[in-house]
Write a structure and sequence with these properties.
alpha+beta; Endonuclease, Chain A; 4-stranded mixed sheet; 7 helices
Length: 166
Amino acid sequence: MQTDPLLLDRARRMRREMTEPETRLWLALRGRRCQNTKFTRQVPVGPYIADLCARSARLIIEVDGDTHTDQSRDDRRTTALMNMGYRVLRFANADIMTNMDGVLHQISVALAAALTQPSPRREEGYRMTNHDRAFARGSSRPPAAVRRCRRRDRIARAGGDPRAWL
């Protein structure tokens, strides 16, 4: 699924022009500083741009400032993101500026809950493959082991000795 180029350009611009509360929260979360979870900022998710996103935990953090005055619009957005499989946490600018420890604690609790719950795809009898794990981590390229298996299978189908290429 291709991301809309206009949405991608807007996300890049928003990364350069972050608000003070977004910047403070980003500095507290970047570099796997919170429960060794990778966060990215201003991420296109469907038709929306999430302020901060932890793809591995399927968690989106929204920083609500002056632009978030329409509660019904925020509710529709939250519902849409939840339907995509994300959990959404919203924090007001004032909370981030005055109570960063409390905000980080709430994020840690949400991460702990998200990482202990089973993935929706891990149903009874379903075994996650390396290819699924790569996409769960947000990679668009399959892992090296999968690429090697595919190459070995192509060689075997062509009549060659697959062990010669390992």
